[in-house]
Specification:
Elements: H1 3-20, H2 30-52, H3 68-88, H4 93-112
Length: 126
């Protein structure tokens, strides 16, 4: 399976899981989209907190250790919610892939020019 097919498979799997738990991202109203975008953003915030807790960030606590296995699980959890969020926004795996390519080009151009000035218009084509 090539890389793009793997990405499409993740989209298919997430859609099946969402439907299994009663979330159908197809044909949502604007109000439903708004609610689910907020739900997924909140869920990702929590997953990021759990990822952060996998790393010994509390400089005052000596008992901590890096839990790489849990950190990896939290990253995968983030993907679940991120894919769901993309689906709510009507983005296919191909849409995300193509937008990523374009945004990556923008980011490289920004770095080439020192990214000293914010240009809100350099991403409008994505």
């Amino acid at each position: 399976m090539d890389k793009l097919d793997q990405l499409r498979e993740l989209w298919r799997m997430q859609d099946a899981l969402n439907k299994r738990i009663g979330v159908n991202t197809d044909g949502m109203s604007e109000e439903e989209k708004t609610n689910w975008i907020l739900n997924y953003c909140r869920a990702m915030t929590q997953e990021i907190a759990e990822l952060t807790d996998s790393v010994p960030w509390k400089w005052w606590a000596k008992y901590q250790k890096f839990d790489q296995q849990n950190a990896r699980v939290e990253v995968v959890d983030l993907f679940h919610f991120l894919i769901s969020l993309a689906q709510v926004l009507g983005m296919s795996a191909d849409d995300v892939f193509n937008s990523y390519i374009k945004k990556n080009e923008v980011n490289f151009k920004r770095q080439e020019h020192g990214y000293a000035v914010k240009d809100e218009h350099d991403s409008k084509h994505i």
